[in-house]
Design brief:
This protein is an alpha/beta fold. The protein contains twelve helices and eight strands.
């Protein structure tokens, strides 16, 4: 069985999409292909039911179905983190207990948008720790979505007071200084050193690694880029990591568009044979003819650039 999530986690915990059929049902066959694809790409773990996994569009039964299928396909070969954010602690705990019982390694919790003060944020995550018991969890810091600003000092307090908070999903923007501040705090002994994996589609991954991040917890239609960047950094080949990242950056930038980005990701994953359909569950955008032309042009340019640098 996969070891539970802990502070030493590193590498790429890819945010998995949720495949749907053309008529909007959960596509089990595509889940299997997707899991195989991510594993073959070399990721270190998977995160399911994230914001870009269309989790809010799933029923409770579908959420469990997706998690159970991913876990069944992996058979413990990679750790799986499950997003369990909910309006209340009771449904959060219910889903967390279910997925941990099925074999998940840990869960991820996004703060509710109603939190405004440092004490409210700290109090919320203390309550999360109490509600989840021994379950290790990821603090998802995504102010672009939640409008909840979590200062480094507040994260220090949470990490000191809630021992089951083992990872920060860093998705602040701009947020490089926050990574540096947290690493300085752990170096000085003011808090435990926790894992920091970063989001935002990997747009700042090399810079985040330079500041002390342990890897990425995000999605991109070419997860092998993120895996390559993390492995090159671990090997001390920082310039090579930056060159590899730069080859994929135009497509990563295009994929990071608010609203349209997930449609781009699913289009490319379907084109790569991972998904049977590029369908987003309603409400969700569809790519126009002009959008598709943009993506195809970016894919062709990316292929040429990768050949030029021998990647």
């Amino acid at each position: 069985m996969t070891v539970g999530l802990n502070e030493r986690a590193k590498g790429v915990y890819v945010i998995a999409v949720t495949p749907f059929t053309d008529t909007g049902e959960v596509d089990i066959a595509s889940i299997d292909r997707m899991v195989d694809f991510y594993e073959e790409a070399g990721v270190d773990g998977l995160t399911v039911l994230g914001q870009l996994g269309e989790a809010p569009k799933l029923t409770a039964a579908e959420s469990r179905q997706v998690v159970e299928r991913v876990l069944e396909r992996l058979q413990g070969r990679l750790p799986v983190v499950v997003g369990v954010s909910a309006p209340g602690l009771a449904p959060m705990r219910e889903l967390a207990d279910a997925v941990m019982g099925a074999g998940a390694a840990g869960v991820m919790v996004l703060p509710p948008w109603t939190l405004r003060t440092d004490d409210q944020i700290h109090g919320f995550y203390r309550s999360v720790g109490e509600a989840l018991g021994d379950t290790p969890f990821v603090l998802q810091d995504y102010p672009l979505t939640t409008n909840v600003q979590i200062a480094p000092g507040v994260i220090e307090r949470i990490v000191r007071d809630v021992p089951t908070c083992v990872m920060l999903k860093h998705e602040d923007w701009p947020g490089l200084a926050k990574i540096g501040a947290l690493r300085a705090a752990s170096d000085a002994g003011r808090m435990r050193r926790i894992s920091i994996l970063c989001g935002n589609g990997g747009l700042f991954l090399p810079e985040e690694m330079e500041r002390g991040a342990d890897g990425a917890m995000t999605g991109f239609c070419f997860p092998e880029m993120m895996v390559g960047v993390c492995r090159l950094f671990e090997a001390g080949e920082r310039e090579a990591a930056h060159r590899l990242f730069a080859a994929y950056l135009p497509l990563a930038r295009y994929e990071q568009q608010q609203g349209l980005g997930l449609a781009v990701r699913k289009y490319v994953l379907a084109k790569r044979g991972v998904l049977g359909s590029a369908k987003l569950r309603a409400p969700g955008p569809a790519l126009s003819t002009a959008d598709v032309a943009d993506v195809e042009r970016l894919l062709a340019a990316q292929e040429r650039r990768l050949a030029e640098i021998g990647a």
